[in-house]
Amino acid sequence: LSRQYSNQKRARSLKEELHDLKFDNWIERFGGSLSELCMLIKQEQATLKKLSTSIQQEGKQLQRKRENVDLQMEWLDILSQSNIEINAKKPVKPIEILPPKKVIPFEQKENLQTNKPLQA
Fold this sequence. Notes:
The chain is mostly helical. The protein is built from two helices and no strands.
């Protein structure tokens, strides 16, 4: 009976040792992978933080540009409104249509200057 008890105790301790060895082996095998994975996660977090900062800066720049465009649009509205008021105050001038002028060909003009009759 004592022998059976000692065998059971020894079997239990061997099972515990085997379990510890398997666990240690698993830690050795996957511990490096876990540390690499942890490093990758930290790198991704840093990259995401940089991207977030960059996006915030771009958002601020776009907001400033939008404010500038809004200001320019207000100025254009003011200028166009004042243009309309100025144009409305000016009297409309009638357009003078002149009769067409008589065009003399160059050869005739030369002949007229030399007082020679035109030869055809």
